[in-house]
Amino acid sequence: MVKEKDNKKEQEIISAPPTGMQVVWREFIKDRVAMFSLIIMVLAISGVFIASLFFDPAEVMKVSLRSKYAPPSSLHWLGADIGGSDVFGQLIIGAKNSLLIAIAITLITGTVGIFIGLACGYFGGWIDNMFMRIIDFFITLPSLMIIIVFITIVPKYTVFTFILIVSLFGWTSIARLVRSKALSESRRDYVNASKTLGTNDFVIIFKEVMPNISSILIVEATLSFAGNIGIETGLTFLGFGLPPSTPSLGTLVAYANNPLVMSTYWWVWLPAALFILILMLSINYVGQALRRAADAKQRLG
Amino acid sequence: MWKTVVRRFLIMIPQLFVLSLLIFIMAKNMPGDPFTGKITPETDPARIEELRELNGLNDPWYEQYARWVGNAFQGEFGNSYTYKVKVSTLIGERAMNTFWLSLLTAVMLYAIAVPLGVLAGRFHNSWFDRGVVLYSFISYAIPTFVLALILLYFFGYKLQWFPTTGSVDVREVPGSAGYYISKIYHMILPAFTSAVLGTVAIIQYLRTEVVDAKSMDYVRTARAKGVPANKVYSKHIFRNSLLPVAAFIGFTITGLLGGSIFIETIFAYPGMGQLFISSIASRDYSVITALVMLYGFLALLGSLLSDIIMSIVDPRIRIE
Amino acid sequence: MKTSEELLVIKDLHTGFRIKDTYFDAVDGVSLTLRKNEILAIVGESGCGKSTLATSIIGLHDHNKTRVQGEILFKNKNLAKLGEDEFNDVRGIDIGMIFQDPLSALNPLMRIGEQIEEGLIYHTKLTKEQRVNRVFELLTQVGIPNPQRVARQFPHQLSGGMRQRVIIAIAISCKPQIIIADEPTTALDVTIQAQILDLLKDLQAETGSGIILITHDLGVVAEVADRVAVMYAGQIIEEAPVEELFNNPKHPYTRSLFNSIPQMNSDGKKLNVIEGIVPSLLKLPRQGCRFSPRISWIPESAHEKDPVLHEVAPNHFVRCTCYKEFYFKGEEGGRA
Amino acid sequence: MSFMQIKDLKVHYPIRGGFFNTVVDNVYAVDGISMEFEKGKAYGLVGESGCGKSTTGKSIIGLEKISAGSIIYEGENVTNKRRDRASAYNRDIQMIFQDSHSSLNPRKRVQDILAEPIRNFLKLTPQEESRRINELLAIVGMPEDARLKYPHEFSGGQKQRLGIARAIATNPKLIIADEPVSALDLSVQAQVLNFMKDIQDEYGLSYLFISHDLGVVKHMCDYISIMYKGRFVESGTKKDIYDNPQHIYTKRLLSAIPDVTPNGREDRKLERIEVERNYQAEHKQYFDENGRVYDLSPISDTHFVAATSSALKGGN
Fold first, then answer.
1. pTM
2. Do residue C104 and residue B218 have CB atoms under 8 angstroms apart?
3. Beta-bridge partner residues of D96
4. Residue-wise pLDDT tens for chain B (320 aa)?
């Protein structure tokens, strides 16, 4: 029956590949919540980047004891922290930092994961065996602890080392997923056909296999972007994230570790926590809607 | 089956080896020595060199490694710098707290996840199902520390239903009934937070398993036999969907341990995770090394356990 | 033609699937009778509605998305009106079913013995011991050596042919009067297929039950069927005793099908190709002769406006009058 | 004169097991088969599932690793050059797949699918390439506007015809067809078989036709080999195999094929039972103590049977 339904749809779209971006977009328009999430996500991210142009980090971080723990007012939209620094300004700058770092981590882990995953899935054999052993091992590691230890023992600790350390543990799950998809895709006969038609492995991997799993790659990138925001803010929250000179959303939330701040000066930590929550919900929903759209079986029709 | 289990054990050996090597290298790169706790600023540099020699810190790295592994096997990780007690004693105390917390979490986790997942799958596309999907979506998207903080803020500070720190009320006498009740009372909020976050994977898995199983040919066979609908669910669909979940137990343990760092820190619960963070803060390296090793070992054990359970419950693996 | 009592009478059956609040009938007005002691084959290409017909009879369709109208009369009951639960008094006891893929049709986590026993638990008053003995008896009956051992095994430990025998044992466990076999040998190798078909035929002769055999393979039909109904686009277009149908096919579709089989003696000669494609469910022509678009060289006037089945020989029925005018393209003189 | 010879081809897969996952045994998927191919002839490879017929096809074209044996093409040993892009072998041997749907990349338009072999093997200008694509579509009876469509817009039979068009794009000498029609309905199957026959006559193609369907193979092929457990049990012309089967396995296979007429089916059933009894009784004369098929020995110029000499004498 599903097949019949597809036939009908195919009539309407003249010559589009079955999982093209066009199809995905049409699905998106039909799903109101997904559209809403997409708008929230775009607004939140672009809002942060645009607003950050109007804040000077040095100005924001300036200590002003007079406004210590000042409640929200027209001067300080979201009040001030223990040093009297403006929370709203910190929120914007912190969010910008968090987003940039999450993007960097996503790009690095995504690229590495996709390359390794494609190679493992397509070639199989010893390449696959070797990387799968490594990945299995990484997955059983208590990675959060090891990241923390790494961060504390690295001699010159900067934003870049932070990105590298987190990326070192982040590529495995993407590689694993890409591998399983590439494996099932590589077993399909069109790959065999290309082999018999004299196309070389490199071209087959990037021009045949990769386009066919591209929708999954986009979905995974979106979801892992959300995950990376969580990892960065979480680590910063614990005190092992960005260097103190670079505020992050996690820095603000970390104020809640002080019971007094948590219970009384909620404006210091709660907005940042809620902002993370909204960001995560919207990005994740967009990711899941993309996943539904990319999977012909789950399409809304 | 025994072959699978033994082989699985053998695979664990090189993993443990690599893990220990990794941790040893990390430990070597940490500032300070296993006997750092015995040194004060007044100690004579010659005396330090003497101590180094005495403790074999000038030996080749592989000899040091061998000795370190030997000690680790006997649970000997040196002394804590901060607490001035043996690392093993220190961790032992905290480990019990973490163990009880994890146990309560696991109980809550399965008590929430299994019925939700199974029922959502059975009543696919109903309002109940949509609610479950929404719940699992939110708990998937929300970061651990954000959920923990929000729950702590509302239930701990605003409503004051639960204590906000510690593992037991200090006024209770150890051993008394009140003591144990207090212990459980302190665990409820952190365990619940942790459980909510852990349910996602199991709910999603169970739900899709049940939905998929409904259209499986063997379910059609059962229906064609005239087996009543309830029995089709209990004997065929649920059983076949639940067995793989049993194998999740091992991974659940790993997951709970990983999450315990956030949970214990936020709820100020004196377990291993909190000990780890405070040791990092005080640069108490011998404790850190021991904890990482212990966590790594438990994680490996967890995945081993999962594989063994899988090989017991699935006849396709059981009978080779 | 064996004349014996009627087991199952289907009258004007319509089975429709719901797509966006509209029902599309995949089975579109089928009437059939199954008698005791016979194998009735329903043959057709994919998408003709033959499997849907089978699932409607035994009630295995999704009751939420499917609409069954018409009459399926069995023991004074109309099966088309039964709900999912009420069907459990019919399924397994009175009607057994054999599936296409013997591996996926067995529960991978249950022992063979348990799976055969399951039907007995709900439909008989046998004690545990009697049930176990009955399981052994059934396994022996379907030609499985060493039943005690096989009963304790899991599906993945058996070969394809053995699994299909187990499926048959399940289907006949409560001695049903009707067995529906949906492509029972399609997933099997020819040598195993021959064994399974022989087994089915022997069992049928032994028990006197009626078998509805759904298949796309005319060879299988020729080997085992007593009577054949040919389906096209949701309707029966020809029905006849097996010798009559194979020796004297009438409907253009039946004849075209026969001419497209690469037979043992076709030896590279051109095979007949039917123009066009099988219409999809959503685009089924609901009026007139459904095969007419695929024999476009036959004049419109040859077809009936509202085609019905005509008895052209004793017990031989053909839908639409177009068979009278039909000839294969390029053989102008070869009219029937 | 044959243009290609396959000598003692073997494809073995290691079975790993034991504690250390070492190679404990091999699966003999293809276990020493030899064939020769002549221009314009069709060769059938018949057997039941798991007999190694597909593996044979895949190993010839280079999708499976050959463990032993050699492939000689136009006098040159090409065993290890099968996937060499520059080799004439790779251009001249093409393949048609069983599942036409999965053999076409869903994200490529028909013109790109057909252009793939042309771009890889032939040096054509874009205009020539475009003309060739139209030509190919015309050969398999598809309109030119199909070029811009995606595979999912075609029916099963049309997709298989596109697969054929792609396989003949480089004017190959041999096409390996692995169950090319077994996924298709009867009427569509007839159409595809007709096409394959037409193209063969027109271009002097050779086929290696792999199928489990003896009817289809007999319809298409001049020579037939029956395969069992990775080895040939019998090999010969179509007439040899169907009119004068010698190996007990061939007889069993032939007797199991349903005949498309109900007349005389009782007799056929009795014959099946008889053949099955002989199969059990005479097993020793056709299989050695390990159950392995004997080597082929000739009983005529074209007809080869794998059996002990006593069985052959008895059979004649």
1. 0.84
2. yes
3. D177
4. 677 777 777 878 888 888 888 888 877 777 655 555 555 666 676 776 776 676 666 677 777 788 777 777 776 777 776 677 777 788 888 888 888 888 889 889 999 999 999 999 998 888 999 999 889 888 888 888 888 888 888 888 878 888 777 777 777 777 777 777 888 888 888 888 888 888 888 898 899 889 888 888 999 999 999 898 889 998 899 888 888 787 777 777 777 776 788 888 888 888 888 888 888 877 777 788 888 888 888 888 888 888 888 777 777 766 54
Evaluate whether residue D149 is within a structural domain: no
Residue D299 near residue D312, CB atoms below 8 Å: yes
A44, with CB counted inside 10 A (0-12, 13-18, 19+), is middle
Token pair listed for C329: 């393209």
Please report whether residue D247 resides in a domain: yes
CB contact under 8 A, A1 and C280: no
Measured CA to CA, the distance from residue D134 to residue D145 in angstroms comes to 9
**Chain B neighbors of A141, CB-CB under 8 A:** 19, 296, 299
Read off the DSSP letter of residue C181: E
Can you give the residue ranges of every domain in chain C?
A: 1-94+177-336, 106-175
**To which H or E segment does residue C29 belong?**
strand C22-35
Could you name the CATH architecture of C1-94+177-336? Answer: 3-Layer(aba) Sandwich (3.40)
Q: What value of ipTM does the predicted structure carry? A: 0.82
Chain C nearest CA to A300, separation (Å): 11
Chain A window 272-301: which residues touch C at a Cβ cutoff of 8 Å? 301
Domain ranges, residue D291: 243-316
> What CATH code would you report for B87-270?
1.10.3720.10
Structural domain includes residue D252: yes
Residue A177 to residue A132: CA distance in whole angstroms: 11
Domain membership of residue D117 (yes or no) is: no
* Cβ atoms of D61 and C203 closer than 8 Å: no
CATH class of domain segment(s) A79-294 = mainly alpha
What's the gap in Å between the CA of A189 and the closest CA on chain D? 4
What's the Cα-to-Cα distance from D45 to each of D51, D114, D208, rounded to whole Å? 10, 27, 7
Residue from D19, D22, D24 to probe the interface with B (highest B Cβ count within 10 Å): D19
- The secondary element (H helix, E strand) that includes residue D200 is helix D186-203
Give the CA distances from residue D133 to residues A129, B133, D107, D195, in Å, rounded to whole numbers and listed in that order.
Answer: 41, 50, 18, 17
Partner-chain contact D260 C191, CB within 8 Å: no
Going residue by residue through chain A (301 aa), what tens digit of pLDDT does each one get?
A: 334 444 444 444 456 666 666 777 777 788 888 888 889 889 988 888 888 888 777 666 666 666 676 677 666 666 767 666 777 888 888 888 889 999 999 999 999 999 999 999 999 888 898 898 888 888 878 888 888 888 888 777 788 888 999 999 889 989 999 999 999 999 899 999 998 888 889 999 998 999 888 888 888 888 899 889 888 888 888 888 777 667 888 888 887 777 777 777 777 788 888 888 888 889 988 888 888 777 665 554 4
The count of structural domains within chain D is: 1
- Please enumerate in sequence order all residues whose Cβ is within 8 A of that of D123, keeping only pairs 6 or more positions apart, or say none: none
Which residues of D fall within a CB distance of 8 Å from C191?
Answer: 48, 252-253, 256
- C-beta contacts of B180-185 below 8 A and 24+ residues apart: B183/B100, B184/B104
Helix (H, G, I), strand (E, B) or coil at C174: coil
Spatial CA neighbour of D90 closest among A200, A197, A192 = A197
Query: Hey, are the CB atoms on C99 and B220 less than 8 Å from each other?
Result: yes
Specify whether the CB–CB gap between D184 and C273 falls below 8 A.
no
Nearest residue of B to residue A142, measured between CA atoms: B296
How far is B13 from chain D, CA to nearest CA, in Å? 13
